[in-house]
Specification:
single chain; 10 helices; 67% helix
Length: 224
């Protein structure tokens, strides 16, 4: 139990590291929360800091989820409860640590519990658990962003596509996914949480007031 508590607390703290704020203050001399959407995540970082620093923030946020999973692997010594899932005990341990990192990113202790949306940190956590599904979701994210210019819309659809891809692989393409029934429940719960963190973006999208990255759109000239 002690190792599990230690990993959960450590993963939450890792997830809480406000890289968006750190990078903006270090390289631009201001708090990113005072610019753009007021969010410290990578989307606002791309908008406010430019693509180079935005990419840096995204990679660092992704590394928080991956780092939590690696930390859990290092400290794993068994589960303090019965594992009723088809997963190996260490996989359950990693998922718990990754989920704690995502919560830390969204509700960071270092910034008044107001953090980012959690997409990048969740992706980092899932790379080691469901790499095929993450790759598909990432591809769809890029397509949506390139067609629409809305990063938030791409993030929302990517979150939905994670459990959807898992379902299609298992049921339409007969892929054998270890622990499928447990993993898809986890993926659906994670998708619902990530969509919830984007609720303000959804309102702006419906009102056609969401910020758009026009320079990313492939067909922007045809839509004018």
């Amino acid at each position: 139990m002690l190792s599990l508590v230690l990993v959960i607390v450590s993963s939450y703290i890792i997830g809480s590291i406000p890289f968006g704020i750190i990078v903006s203050k270090r390289f631009r001399g201001f708090d990113i929360r005072t610019k753009g959407s007021g969010n410290m995540g990578s989307t606002n970082a791309f908008r406010v800091l430019g693509w180079k620093l935005g990419l840096l923030v995204q990679v660092l946020d992704l590394s928080k989820g991956l780092g939590a999973v690696l930390l859990a692997s290092f400290f794993f010594s068994g589960l303090p409860f019965h594992n009723a899932t088809p997963f190996q005990d260490v996989t359950v341990f990693r998922l718990i640590a990754g989920a704690a990192a995502v919560m830390g990113h969204v509700f960071t202790i270092f910034a008044g519990f107001r953090g980012g949306k959690g997409i990048s940190t969740a992706a980092g956590m899932l790379i080691g658990v469901a790499p095929v599904e993450v790759a598909v979701a990432a591809g769809i994210f890029l397509v949506v962003v390139l067609l629409s210019g809305y990063v938030s819309l791409g993030s929302i659809i990517a979150a939905i596509m994670l459990p959807t891809t898992m379902f299609l692989r298992q049921n339409a393409f007969d892929a054998q996914i270890t622990g499928y029934h447990t993993l898809i429940v986890f993926a659906i719960a994670l998708a619902v949480f990530l969509i919830y963190t984007h609720r303000s973006n959804i309102k702006r999208l419906l009102a056609k007031r969401e910020n758009r990255f026009d320079h990313l759109r492939l067909f922007r000239s045809a839509s004018r």
